[in-house]
Write a structure and sequence with these properties.
- The complex is a heterodimer of chains A (about 500) and B (about 325).
- By secondary structure, chain A is an alpha+beta fold.
- Chain A has 16 helices and 13 strands.
- In chain A, a hairpin with a 2-residue loop joins strand 2 and strand 3.
- In chain A, helix 1 runs antiparallel to helix 2 and helix 11 packs across helix 14.
- Chain B has 13 helices and no strands.
- In chain B, about 65% of the residues lie in helices and about 0% in strands.
- The chains are: A alpha+beta (about 500), B mainly alpha (about 325).
- The interface between A and B is large, with 49 and 58 residues.
- Chain B: It comes from Bombardia bombarda.
Chain lengths: ~500, ~325
């Protein structure tokens, strides 16, 4: 066909054109470099001259102000001369785009027919390179930090640089015939892609010395002194309102970054938030995290540690998204205020009970899609009687929180996932603009390091659900009694004092 | 931004593989090409989305730029990369499924790599499934290869494909005024063919450049009118890279046809390490056995081989003395 002939002829043309373009480009490049070099030398000379003059000036200034004035004028004249002789002065050159200077600097360039390709600025995409892992022998172990459900973590020092890092060993079950754990691989991939000040940084992945079989895999992470959970457990007084705001802002900014990059963390909780001695918070442990698309794919509901798990997950939603993380952020908010996990359910049903007690019973207005969730059908909810309080009691539970704080917390703990604010919206919330203003990170109190020397205490928190476990079918559950106590309380005073 | 970029091969890596591998260049190309074809065929039979299979192709190519060819069986590396990518994505496949598919594709019942492809497809399942012990051995090999791939790539399994970008670019250019499916299909065909290229285009160019080159080729093929200006610059591709990719993508088909003629072994099933060893042996053997009667006009080659043999002998002598 004609197209074939055309294409082959074209291919020649293209090759020729490419060659031509290349040689032209090279010439241009050489010319540009030359011009640049000349310019640099000139700048250098000018700078030296100026420095000399400045010195002279300083000396002269001490002596006679008159001479200084004269000098300054002279200097101005000199610069003016420069301008006409060798091109525009330093100051102006910085302002003008490079293309213009090239055109004026080198008269030869004007003679060349305008070639758009040499002038256009093309974005260059840098994706890095690939290559083998290094060996763990590049690090010296200092001490163990933690050994628990997440596997083994140790403090270590890089031999070449002396830098202190955290080594986290990827937990591998040798009996598992599905190979390296997919959660670990996802964690590595996601951490590799993340570069944000509030997300823990993965420096590299190293393997054990024997590379004939890859069994020992270590993540080399930034070493961070504390986790928020153990700080909360040990502090005699809760965080100040200003400190809570700083922590929340950092958390929200990290989560906003993750969500912007299509990552769901799915296990946000205080023990996964690290805090260094400079008041910087970093989100860690991406063992449950994964990339999602829009619309979100079908995902497992068995994610997020029970106490931080959103109601739609408990009710078996197969499609969920960023709001599950925002629910966890709400739980963390509450925990930062009281030093106690907010919703400590003993099991799925108890967790749901605690949620409904705090946030109210879902209604058609508060959560229109509620009835369609798989586990919602079996639930028996208290009949809605006019006057009976089945709404949220967040205001009553946090009497010291400002109205803006309650509105943010209430928003994050909205039963309907669609009503929760996104992390970006949260960052813009009124709460953070009100007094007391968020405390500067550098002004943050420091805490005695546990991770530094001793072994971290085992957490009382339940762990994130294991992979492959069966999602709990809630079955028929009767929630109709959960508000019976509350009604009695409410009847007592008829009003409540509000502390601001 | 990482969703649009890939880690690329360094010039050093490309040079090392070409120059210091124990295998001649055309054998290297044959191994890469047939392993990529095998991966694609397995992806189809495993009903994986092409996005997953294509990622496996890229992982496979990267692996062989870091590790020597002969350290694992080629089909095992192909299976392991497919297994790994599927596992990380939304559609994991069990080792059992992968074993069945690869066993079939490597068996004489498969029409892949076999010409004429007129053999009756898949007569009986039993003839193409492994015994339990053979399956266990395959399974262990896949897991070992998986770990090896991850080690070789520093656990970086990130692959950005140009396919979605290409569709977006096409939309931006209003499909160049031709029927959407017609040009889009052609573009995707170029992108998928490029996965098989022994030039490893996916390791030398970023997705945006691949997408633009595929659109250029497709537009030429369907006779669509492209903008008069240097439109590729809008997508951050320069003329030189575009030219290289356009030629690279177009040459795959002809190159593959020629190779099939040159290397008749390719028509007798997937090449294995043994095939390669035999091939190497034959080359050496030709030189030693009958210097003049090479048959395929390999006079120069024989002289070279003869010289290499003499040097080997000399070395052996010297070592023997020392």
């Amino acid at each position: 066909m004609a197209s074939k002939a055309k294409s082959s002829r074209w291919a020649d043309n293209e090759a020729d054109a490419a060659l031509e373009a290349q040689s032209k480009k090279e010439k241009e490049e050489k010319k540009r470099l030359k011009a640049e070099k000349a310019r640099k030398q000139q700048i250098e000379a000018e700078k030296q001259q100026q420095a000399l003059e400045a010195q002279a000036q300083a000396r002269a200034e001490a002596a006679t102000p008159q001479i200084t004035a004269h000098r300054q004028k002279q200097q101005g004249d000199e610069l003016g001369d420069d301008d006409s002789a060798n091109g525009p002065p330093v100051k102006r050159r910085r302002l003008s785009p490079e293309r213009d200077t090239r055109a004026t600097d080198s008269p030869a360039a004007v003679g060349v027919a305008p070639d758009s390709s040499s002038n256009t600025k093309l974005l260059r995409f840098e994706g890095g390179a690939f290559g083998r892992c290094r060996s763990v022998e590049n690090y010296d172990k200092l001490n163990d930090i933690e050994e628990g459900a997440y596997g083994w973590v140790a403090r270590a020092q890089e031999v070449a640089t002396g830098k202190v890092v955290a080594l986290k060993r990827l937990k591998i079950d040798p009996k598992d015939r599905s190979g390296l754990p997919v959660t670990g691989l996802r964690e590595i991939q996601i951490l590799k892609d993340c570069h944000h000040r509030n997300v823990v940084k993965l420096q590299e992945v190293v393997v054990g010395e024997d590379t004939s079989k890859i069994e020992n895999i270590f993540l080399v992470l930034d070493f961070i002194e504390h986790d928020v959970k153990s700080i909360l457990e040990d502090m005699p007084e809760p965080f100040l309102a200003s400190e809570v705001k700083t922590l929340l802002l950092q958390l929200a900014s990290g989560v906003a970054y993750l969500h912007d990059n299509w990552i769901l963390h799915r296990d946000l909780k205080t023990s996964n938030l690290l805090l260094n001695n400079r008041g910087q918070l970093k989100i860690a442990d991406f063992g449950m995290a994964r990339y999602v698309g829009d619309p979100p794919p079908k995902l497992t509901q068995l994610v997020v540690t029970l106490w931080y798990r959103a109601p739609e997950l408990l009710l078996g939603a197969a499609r969920y998204g960023q709001p599950v993380d925002m629910w966890s952020v709400g739980c963390i908010f509450g925990e930062l205020l009281t030093r106690e996990p907010l919703l400590q359910g003993k099991n799925e049903v108890d967790e749901l009970t605690k949620i409904f007690e705090l946030c109210g019973i879902p209604t058609d207005e508060s959560w229109p899609m509620f009835k369609r969730l798989p586990n919602a059908r079996a639930l028996r909810l208290p009949a809605k009687t006019p006057g009976a309080a089945t709404g949220p009691v967040i205001r009553a539970k946090f009497p010291l929180l400002t109205a803006a704080g309650v509105s943010l917390l209430g928003g994050l703990l909205a039963l309907d996932p669609d009503k929760r604010p996104s992390a970006k919206e949260m960052l813009a919330h009124e709460y953070f603009r009100q007094d007391p203003k968020p405390k500067q990170e550098a002004m943050f109190p420091t805490f005695p390091s546990k991770a530094g020397q001793e072994r971290r205490r085992r957490k009382r928190t339940p762990n994130a659900p294991g992979r492959g476990e069966q999602a709990v079918d809630l079955g028929a559950v009767d929630f109709s009694g959960i508000f019976s106590g509350r009604e009695k309380e409410e009847r007592g005073g008829g009003f409540s004092l509000r502390m601001v | 931004m990482s969703h649009m970029t890939n880690p690329l091969a360094t010039p050093d890596q490309l040079y090392q593989r070409r120059s210091f591998s124990s295998l001649p260049a055309e054998l290297q190309d044959a191994i890469i090409f047939s392993s990529q074809c095998l991966t694609q065929a397995a992806g189809v039979l495993l009903q994986l989305p092409q996005s997953a299979t294509a990622q496996a192709n890229v992982i496979l190519a990267r692996y062989w730029l870091v590790e020597p060819f002969m350290s694992h069986e080629f089909s095992d590396i192909s299976a392991a990369s497919l297994y790994l990518v599927a596992k990380l994505g939304p559609s994991p496949r069990s080792p059992r499924d992968i074993s069945n598919v690869y066993t079939y594709l490597l068996s004489p019942a498969s029409t892949l790599f076999r010409s004429p492809p007129s053999l009756p497809p898949l007569r009986s399942i039993t003839s193409t499934t492994l015994s339990e012990s053979a399956y266990q051995a395959f399974h262990s090999r896949i897991l070992a290869a998986e770990a090896r791939i991850l080690y070789a790539l520093s656990f970086n399994t990130h692959v950005s494909l140009p396919h979605p970008l290409a569709v977006t670019y096409l939309q931006a250019m209003d499909f160049l005024g031709v029927r959407k499916e017609r040009i889009a299909k052609r573009v995707l065909a170029y992108l998928n063919t490029a996965l098989l290229s022994p030039q490893m285009l996916y390791l030398t160019s970023q997705p945006n450049a691949l997408a633009v080159a595929a659109i250029y080729n497709a537009a030429k093929d369907v006779g669509a009118k492209m903008p008069e200006c240097e439109w590729w610059e809008v997508f951050d591709v320069d003329r030189e890279e575009l030219g290289f990719l356009v030629v690279g993508m177009r040459s795959v088909e002809g190159w593959a046809r020629k190779m099939r003629e040159d290397v008749p072994r390719l028509g007798q099933g997937m090449i294995s390490r043994r095939t390669v060893e035999e091939e190497m042996e034959k080359k050496r053997g030709l030189g030693v056995g009958n210097g003049s009667g090479g048959g395929q006009g390999g006079g120069e080659l024989d002289v070279e081989a003869e010289m290499a043999r003499k040097m080997d002998e000399k070395m052996a002598e010297m070592e023997g003395v020392a």
